[in-house]
Structure formats: C-alpha cells, structure tokens
Amino acid sequence: MTSEDKKSATKRQVPAVTRALAILRLLARSNEPIGVNPIARELDLIPSTCLHILRVLEDEGLVEFDSNLKRYTIGIGILPLARAALQRNTFSTLIQPKLSELSQKFGVTGIATQLSEPGQMVVVALSQSDIPFRLQVDLGSRFPALISASGRLFAAFNMTDEDELKTAFDKLAWDHPPSHELWREQVRQARELGYAVDQGSYISGVTVVAVPVFGANGKMTRSIVAIGISERLKDKEIPKLVKAMKAIREHIENIQIDTGS
C-alpha cells in the first residue's frame, strides 16, 4: 500500500463538518439572505439537518439570522478567521510591496489570488493606483476560478476533462461572453505563452492580464493579476506589464526557495 493509499484509508469523512462548510460557502457567495429550505435544496440536505447546523453556526457568530425575513447571511464572526489567515499567508505578505510597485508604474489595480475552495479564487493581496478612475476590488473577494484572464490559465494548467470544462464555462457570467470555441483557443494560447489577457470580455472596457503561480504539484494555485482601463492599457504596454509580473513571480519563488517556505 502506498503512502497515498494509507492516507486515503485513514482519512475519515465528517459529514457535519462538510455540510457546515458547504453552507458557509453558499452564504458567502450569495448577495441576498437565504432561507433554510432554499439552502437545503441547493446543497441536497434534509431541512431539519440544515436548520440544526445553521443554529450552531449562528451560536458561533459565523452566520446571522434575520428573524423578520427568516433568512440567513454570512456572519461577521468569520472576519477574525479571515484576517488571521491573510496575516499568516506568506504569499500575500511577500507580494504586497511588489504589487504596490506594479500599480504605481503601470497605473493598474494589482491583485494576487489564491485557490480557496473548489472552483473559487480569493483575493489575498491588493494594490490600487493613483489614477482618478479605478476599479473597486476588496481583499477576500471571491470569483469563479475559470473567469477572465486568470480563468484561462486555470483551465490551461489545471483541467483536462473537456466535458467538465464545457459545463463550467457555460455557468460563467461575462459582460461580453466569448464563444466556447474562442475561449478554448485562448486557453491553448495561455498554456503556450504562460500568461493570459482578457480585453473587455469579463468587464466591458476593462483589460485583465494574469500570470500563473504554481504549487509544488505543478498545478496553478495562485495568480498575479493586473486590471486596467482598456483605453489606458494599450496592446503595446501588455508585454512590458507581463514581463514585470513574471519578475514578481520569480522574486517570490526565489525568496520561498531560500527560506524553505
């Protein structure tokens, strides 16, 4: 028996924990409060079981209950946990000053993202430029792993099942959706070039440039992303921006190798 087999054999399922995490993730994604029955239907849970878990999460401050609407939202009790996680995230700590330099030099919003759960990326570092108009992005913001420029990279380096890719692609929301055929070609190009560009597809008038950051298993687990107004971020600037972003990645990787982190 291999070490992986032993690990799988000794790993026990804990349904209550799995269900509680699924509820928290659903509430975190929702822009509106949700009732018990819709939560139960969405997660395929027995309503009474769902209610019991919600009450425990409410007692812990992780969800909040609106007694008038009879609905639940994510609670502020999650904030200390999220803050502590970000403070202990070596990647976000190392990359923050480099993102600030990138934003000032190119007039872009710089963000670093990390895979936080299946199919979701979270913003773990952020820097804004001084230009009058800029995009509002917050630490902790989540978005589908396959969306925009970073999504093309995620598809290129992490996913091989064509049917799974097509199903996931059909669920994405864009301002100007590319066809699946065009998107797959862009994914292929991203794999060859080692970076990806989204020019107005995800958000109208906005260009998004991303480079991947790989984990020890060779999979893309993080990304460095630059977001700018398309009128300001011209095609001729993109190669310079990509070069700077790849230099940041190399800088971070070298530090992590030197420190063994």
Short summary:
The chain has about 260 residues and is α+β, with helices and mostly antiparallel strands. Helix content is about 50%, strand content about 20%. It contains ten helices and eight strands.
Write the layout of secondary structure elements.
Elements: H1 3-10, H2 15-29, H3 36-43, H4 47-59, E1 63-66, E2 71-74, H5 78-87, H6 90-106, E3 109-117, E4 120-127, E5 142-144, H7 148-158, H8 162-170, H9 180-193, E6 196-199, E7 206-214, E8 220-229, H10 238-259
Antiparallel strand pairs: 1-2, 3-4, 3-8, 4-5, 6-7, 7-8
Helix pairs in contact: 2-4, 3-4, 6-10, 7-9
Structure description:
The protein is α+β, with helices and mostly antiparallel strands. The chain folds into two domains: about 80 residues, Winged helix-like DNA-binding domain superfamily/Winged helix DNA-binding domain (Arc Repressor Mutant, subunit A, Orthogonal Bundle), CATH 1.10.10.10; about 170 residues, Beta-Lactamase (2-Layer Sandwich). A six-stranded antiparallel beta sheet has the order 5-4-3-8-7-6, with helices on both faces. It has a two-stranded antiparallel ribbon with strand order 1-2. Helix 7 crosses helix 9. The longest helix is centred in the C-terminal third of the chain and has 22 residues. The chain starts with a helix and ends with a helix.
Largest sheet: 6 strands, antiparallel
Q: What percent strand?
A: 15-25%
Low-confidence stretches: 1-9, 257-261
Shape: globular
The class by helix and strand makeup works out as alpha+beta
How many helices does DSSP assign? 10
Could you estimate the helical fraction of the residues in percent? 40-55%
CATH topology description of the largest domain: Beta-Lactamase
Strand order of the largest sheet: 5-4-3-8-7-6
